[in-house]
Amino acid sequence: MGTMFTGSDRSGASLYYIDNDATRVKGRLFAVGSGGTFAYGVLDTNYRYDMSLDEAVNLGIRAITSATYKDSASGGVVRVYHVTNHGQWNLIHDAIDVSELHYQFEQSRGHTGRGNEGKPNKYL
Fold first, then answer.
1. How many structural domains is the chain composed of?
2. Looking at the domain assignment, is residue 100 inside a domain?
3. Which residues form the domain of 75?
4. Would you give per-residue pLDDT tens digits along the chain (124 residues)?
5. Cα separation values, 22 from 30, 32, 40, 82, Å
6. CATH value at residue 51
């Protein structure tokens, strides 16, 4: 188990991963907890260092949605804050329901949930 910690000082904003032994690792991108593997799948595929704030927010929402929907121990809502280099914490989204997001993402990919996407309809 671990946690992420962020803040800013004179050198700018920082992000740290802190594990259960209090080991601190500074980085730009982390996914923690039992759903972290699912989040990393989304992040590793889509993350770029030159992302706009909107792109980063949408990617974060997608990664958290993947983690929380596919791992029952990871929660059920997404909250997004933007932490600036000046120490401001701006709430962007609060308590977005993961189940609704999951189905929106799947529908945007052409998935209907019937299991027959891309196949001709066959009736018994």
1. 1
2. yes
3. 2-108
4. 568 888 777 887 888 999 888 899 999 888 888 888 999 999 999 999 999 999 999 999 989 888 888 887 777 788 888 888 777 889 998 888 887 777 777 778 777 766 666 666 665 4
5. 16, 14, 22, 25
6. 3.60.20.10
